[in-house]
Amino acid sequence: MTELNAAIRNIHLPPRLARRPVNNRGFPVPWFVSHRDGDWDFVNLDPQKIVIAYRQNICWLCGDSLGQFKSFCIGPMCSINRVTSEPAQHKECSEYAVRTCPFLVRPTAKRNEKATLAPDNIPGIHLDHNPGASLVWTTKSYKPIRVSNGTLFELGDPVEVSWWTQGRRATRAEIEASIAKGMPHLRKAAAREGYSALMELERYIERAEKLLPME
């Protein structure tokens, strides 16, 4: 077995993810990753795996069965509209991701430009920037919803949330800065739909603010 990357070697690896292969850079390979041209392709997702994960109730990251609780590793904008493009995960798998994924751990990191899925083909509102903070959202329910350019997942009410940045718990100030970065995109999208959409967005923002830590 390939040794884990030095950057994540001292971070507890959940048993379910420990059963996954490790790539040549020393990172566990999530279940959703495809094997192409003799190597693991972390960039281009297999759309069929989204369907399989939801219908068979399996973790998007480790591939094992899920129980009563479903967790999601999402960006701050998703905490406002409560939708995401990826299926559910185990809580410990989500928390491992926000502590080890290079894109999530480094706020200055950029998305890989080799992805064959163009932004226009990703359902919902695609934000290309690094959000700077992530949220592990745990709920008992979620369901697919149709949008104009595909399918997203609507998240049920959270039973627990935790905010992360740079591989650690995020402060309220860091979360607010992350939200402020993406907010113009949400307001612009709502403005295109009219006044009622803008008012609905304000209600969503107020609802999301209740999920932020005190400090």
Structure notes:
With 215 residues, the protein is α+β, with helices and mostly antiparallel strands. It has a domain at 66-209. It is built from 7 helices and 9 strands. The protein has helices at 15-18, 47-56, 76-81, 91-100, 102-105, 172-193, 195-209; strands spanning 34-36, 39-41, 70-74, 83-84, 134-139, 142-147, 150-155, 158-165, 168-169. It has a 4-stranded antiparallel β-sheet with strand order 3-5-8-9. A 3-stranded antiparallel β-sheet has the order 4-7-6. Strand 8 (158-165) and strand 9 form a beta hairpin. The longest helix is centred in the last third of the chain and has 22 residues, at 172-193. It is globular and about 55 Å long.
* Overall pLDDT metric: 89
Shape: globular
Biggest sheet: strands, sense, closure? 4 strands, antiparallel
Oligomer: single chain
Treating each run of at least 4 consecutive H or I residues as one helix, how many helices?
7
Q: By helix and strand content, what is the structural category? A: alpha+beta
Radius of gyration: 17 Å
Strand content: 15-25%
What is the β-strand count? 9
